[in-house]
Amino acid sequence: MGSESPGPHRSDLPPSAHQVMHLRPRDSAGLVFVGAAVALTGLSFYLASQARLAAWLAGQVLLALALLQWFVLLHECGHETLFRTRRLHRPVGHVAAFFAVIPFECWKRVHGLHHKWTGWQDLDPTTTALVPRPLGRGERLLVNVCWKAWIPLFSLLYRAGNFWNVARLWRLFPRPGLRRRLAVNVACHLVVYAAVVAVVGLGEVVRLAGLGLLLSLMLEDPLLLSQHTHVPLNRSDGKAVVPYAAVDQAVFTRSLRFPRWVAAGVLLNLGAHELHHMYPFVPGYDLTRVEFSTENELPWWQWVRAAKRVPGEVLLFQNRTESGLDI
């Protein structure tokens, strides 16, 4: 499995924002990660185009890793923490968005609200769907079966509900100019995907990328769910509340330790999610330089193994205080 990414040096108090302001984005680092993603994507498609089954399978596995990294690069571009030159984030973000199947403008706006309202489950647009409510028998069956069988239901709903649902986006962002921008971004993505299918052919698209896309979504499901699911969150219940300061958001998230090559080379330390919420302006590739150890971190395999033992309905719609489960 390889050695896991070490945590930062222990400090009793988290550094102030001023103390980590020297950890700024670098164009050289950003270009290295983008270049690596492009190279890995190209290699995966080359292998996937081969007639030999072994080469095709290798291509699909590599494509899954490449698509996962494009999602991470989309995340960094949304925060404008990949490059020092800020104007590079938009074009690279749109490329990453194509592979991540998430429109960039929609991602940037919704993810911004996520960071603003982390800790308030009914105000954070990415967690409102998980506010506890009575579930129908069919809903429970669907959630439980998909979670147990590694069917990436959450990754699909995460995309569809948060970034492709134009009606919901318009409710979240009422300004007419921004509404048009988001709708155009969604429409452009649909046109580009339709053009790819028209030129390449649906069967060939599925052959070259179908399994790789499925595998990437299967990897994203536990990664995304590990970050805030089954963690005690507050609810405003319609009352006027104040957002939590970034440095106070660690208690509302969870971090996972991955092997070094995964943590640094693929995820850009996205697994260090507590530190990311505390210091969202720090590039992911520099998060391990923050000299503070967070409290809610555990090895990735330990969390996945424990979480998979739990019914999906319990994992998603309860927290560890309610369930009594230490996950």
Commentary on this structure:
By secondary structure, the chain is mostly helical. It has one domain. 58% of the residues lie in helices and 2% in strands. It has helices spanning 27-48, 53-79, 89-100, 104-117, 137-148, 153-164, 166-172, 176-200, 202-228, 260-266, 273-278, 300-308, 312-317, 320-323; strands at residues 255-257, 297-299. It has a two-stranded parallel sheet. It starts with 26 loop residues before the first helix and ends with a helix.
Order of helices and strands: HHHHHHHHHEHHEHHH
Mean pLDDT: 95
Spatial gap, N to C terminus: 22 Å
Structural class based on helices, strands and sheet pairing: mainly alpha
Total strand segments: 2
- Which spans have pLDDT < 50 for at least 5 consecutive residues? 6-10
Number of domains: 1
Order of strands across the main sheet: 1-2
Largest beta-sheet characterization: 2 strands, parallel
% residues in beta strands: under 5%
Number of helices: 14
Task: State the helicity in percent bands.
Answer: 55-70%
- The Rg value, from CA coordinates, equals 20 Å
Q: Based on Cα principal axes, name the global outline.
A: globular
Task: Using brief descriptors, characterize the structure shown.
two-stranded parallel ribbon; 327 residues; 14 helices; globular
Short synopsis of the structure:
By secondary structure, the chain is an all-alpha fold. The chain is 58% helix and 2% strand.
Layout of SSEs?
Layout: H1 27-48, H2 53-79, H3 89-100, H4 104-117, H5 137-148, H6 153-164, H7 166-172, H8 176-200, H9 202-228, E1 255-257, H10 260-266, H11 273-278, E2 297-299, H12 300-308, H13 312-317, H14 320-323
Parallel strand pairs: 1-2
